Input
Amino acid sequence: MEYCHLYRTDWGWGAIVKGAQGIKHVVLPEHEHETLRLILAAMYPKLDYEEKAIDPVKEALLRYFGGERVCFDFLLDLSEHTPFKRSVYAATQGIPYGEVRTYGWISDQIGRSRATRAVGQALRCNPIPIIIPCHRVVRKDGTLGGFLSRTGVDFKIRLLQLEGLNI
Output
């Protein structure tokens, strides 16, 4: 059974979905609480909410969105994802705060140097943004590429600026 912690930041309402094996999903902040609830209901129809519970992941995300440098060292449940995606996500977690790497760098890290586009597709499906910092991945020419947030690249820019990058 999955359960959810909602969190409120200056960026909006976000959510963390956990299962028995760890974090399954992080939903990036939305401006409206109801929009977030609709997104969650579509993904997880039988979700239990623990809105008042104190949760270390929730606290870490609140600190991150508040501008603090945070080490996200939490158990993730990526069991529903392919081995390729799991390797992409693991390499992406190695990108330091306030730095960027390219899709090609990730493909080299996982031993699949010709899989740059597949890396991009895997990151497009990243279920745990921020903790798996796909916003720190850019194209080889330095342009930002895409981002999975409903507000797109603008949200990626805000995250990189939060981490001190001059975008």
User: Anything to note?
Assistant: The chain has two domains: 3-65, 83-162. The beta strands are 3-9, 12-19, 22-30, 48-49, 101-102, 137-138. The helical segments are 33-43, 56-65, 83-93, 103-109, 116-124, 153-162. The CA atoms of residues 63 and 70 lie 7 Å apart.
